[in-house]
Amino acid sequence: MNFHHLIPKLLILIITQIRWTNSEGFYDTCSRSFSCGTISGIQYPFRRHQDPPECGYPGFELNCDQNNLPTINITNITYRVLGIDPATQILKLVRGDMINSCPQDLVNTTINHQLFDYTPSYMNISFLIGCPIPFDVEGMISSFFCTNIGINPVILVPGATGPGVCKTSVVIPSPVGFTGLVEVLQDGFEVKWKVDPGPCADCIRSGGLCVSDISRLATTCACPEPPLLADTCSNSKVNKTDVGLSPPSSTSSPTSTGGIKHCPVAA
């Protein structure tokens, strides 16, 4: 029997076991909250790209630039992060490839629905690109030219629409009842992350720090004293006033954004 195909899997298991056996550093290395770019007070399930993978849930890695908005990669598309609201688990995003009101990468906006869901206040619109002239389609919102993509004109229509007689189409979420193209492309859209806040809330209340067990795709608790990893910590030696930030709420409305931390996007 050929066991060579098992070697990579065995190595991953061994490395994972070593990391978790030597997990004392997670409580000190991972942050209860952190700043990334122009946004502060960010908590688990997010982590900075330079942090150990266990500091955040897989798929929530942020790339930080001190003077700019943080970015996140979702299904191979880079988004700028306009705001993060831990209470409602709302993440506000805008595509990072929009140049002069036009998408640079001619691919549909997509999210990982295992991790995120669109909020109800958004609808799809389609950029029909490289359409024949003259061109008319029912419900057309506007038409314009994109100098950066070299194929024109571009027709904006509601809904997720295929290219038809045009060369291609790009679907982008927009606010329901939007009033202008700039609003669509610069104000971004909201998604709700689906990581269960319960285990993290229990961990924080017990004096622990929320981390990720990547092998199980689950939230676990890093503790300041043995056991170093557990569902919750024994808080007998933890001063509850030092626990830090309040745990994320599991009962907040998914459409509320009152507590969102954000920065405006430059035109």
UniProtKB/TrEMBL annotation:
> Which enzyme class?
transferase
Quickly give the catalysed reaction: L-seryl-[protein] + ATP = O-phospho-L-seryl-[protein] + ADP + H(+); L-threonyl-[protein] + ATP = O-phospho-L-threonyl-[protein] + ADP + H(+)
Look up the signal peptide feature and give its range. Answer: 1-23
Q: Where is this region: Disordered?
A: 241-267
Query: Where is each Wall-associated receptor kinase galacturonan-binding domain found?
Result: 30-95
Recorded GO molecular functions are: polysaccharide binding; protein serine/threonine kinase activity
UniProt KW Nucleotide-binding keyword: no
Can you give the residue ranges of the Wall-associated receptor kinase C-terminal domain? Answer: 179-225
As for subcellular location, the record says: Membrane
- Topology in membrane: Single-pass membrane protein
| Record keywords, A-Z | Glycoprotein, Kinase, Receptor, Signal, Transferase
Name the GO cellular-component terms.
membrane
**Does the record bear Glycoprotein in its keywords?**
yes
Q: What is its EC number?
A: 2.7.11.1
For bias kind Low complexity, which ranges apply? 246-257
The record's annotation in Pfam families points to:
GUB_WAK_bind, WAK_assoc
Q: What is its main location?
A: membrane
Source domain of life is: Eukaryota
Its name, as the record gives it, is: non-specific serine/threonine protein kinase
Organism the protein comes from: Helianthus annuus
